[in-house]
Amino acid sequence: MKKSYWLDRWEREEIGFHQSEINPCLSKYWQQLQLANGCEVFVPLCGKSHDMIWLREQGHSVLGIEFSTIATHAFFSENNLVPDCITSDRFTQLKANDIRILCGDFFNLSKNDLANVNALYDRAALIALPPEMRERYVQQLLNILPAATQILLITLEYPHSEMSGPPFSVPMDEVVALYQQQAKINLLAQQDILGQNPRFQERGLSRLQENIFLLTTHAK
Fold first, then answer.
1. Which domains does the chain have, with CATH numbers?
2. What is the pLDDT of residues 38-53, one digit of tens each?
3. Cα(6)–Cα(98) distance, integer angstroms
4. Distance CA 174, CA 169 (A)
5. How does residue 19 score in pLDDT terms, banded at 50, 70 and 90?
6. What's the DSSP call for residue 50?
7. CA dist., res. 216 & res. 220, Å (int)
8. 108-132 in b/e burial notation, b at 16+ Cβ within 10 A?
9. Rounded to 5 degrees, what angle do the CA atoms 122, 126, 128 make?
10. Predicted TM-score (pTM) of this structure
């Protein structure tokens, strides 16, 4: 999937993937990470998610990565934040209220960029990527995340034949295959959410399941 796809979606405001409210799984399961105040949380492919505001309200600093400048600037504008802006050769960094968003290519991130990260929240990154990109995405994450990083991962699962993503179906066995060699995997919950999502019913889905995982990367 080319970067231009997502840039065009933001340009045309075709952002049905953006949630106007805090994700209920985040508020329900985040406490299981037992993070101390001040820990830094990484949010890949963050868009303009309100979840970053919620994470900041829990006492965490937040680091996001987002390719779209429209999404990045919209986040700060819609939350009445005036960010400081620093431009480098790889990213433009916008920061306000201890929330930083690096505007640029996720695959340009290095270990130094994530050196202070304690946890990762992935609601919209893995399911946004087609199968051929998911392995590359996970390998990049595992290569640059600090040891013993906790990951709250939320995925969707539905019959592949009934809908083409995004969001893509990422079944539990694929999550296991992607992460098992370098992380401990704990399935926290599985829930049927089709009834709560009429837009997916309209797209022809007969089943839509949400899987919530807590992963912990191995010590290095």
1. 38-124 (3.40.50.150), 132-220 (3.40.50.150)
2. 999 999 999 999 999 9
3. 26
4. 10
5. low
6. T
7. 12
8. ebeeebbeebbbbbbbbbbbbbeee
9. 110
10. 0.92
